Request: fold
Amino acid sequence: MQEGRPVLLMDDFDRENEADLILAAEKITTETMAMLIRDCSGIVCLCLTDTKLQQLDLPPMVSNNGSRYGTAFTVTIEAVQGVTTGVSAADRVTTIMAAIADDAQPQDLARPGHVFPLRAVPGGVLSRRGHTEGSVDLALMAGLKPAAVLCELTNPDGSMSKGDDIVAYAKKHDLVMLTIDELATYRLQQAA
Reply:
């Protein structure tokens, strides 16, 4: 993550059994954003802490979250300056950089937009075994800001990548692949 390369993070087999491509938010480039848009679902999410979401005044997307795993989307965002339609890879990178800036203010972001912020639960994967928390955990472990970008890996036909397809993608692109379980185990070992 320190090098700005994506990491494949798989969730638990009894959960979605899918993988997300994850990058440290501060390291994302137009090229890696294009990879997310091309090889993944296109729903590019920015994983942030409560502190950052409060700084940006980003409320939950809905008041009653009925999603199966409680994925904590906020309202979507777009940078106010430096973007055109907001949907291009370059525009999404501009939006992410505006959101993660240390001095970012609510007025720096328009609502709605083409980037989907997610609230990471405090405590990371030890509190919630989700990609959102795993992404922020990995960024912190890399010594970076607690902010990460993720997108769900899909197959060329648009179906969700699973099992062997994920392994083949990791090999093809020479990417590190790990699971939420491995990350949680590592965190527990480090805390002991």
Observations:
- Residues 142 and 185 are 17 Å apart (CA to CA).
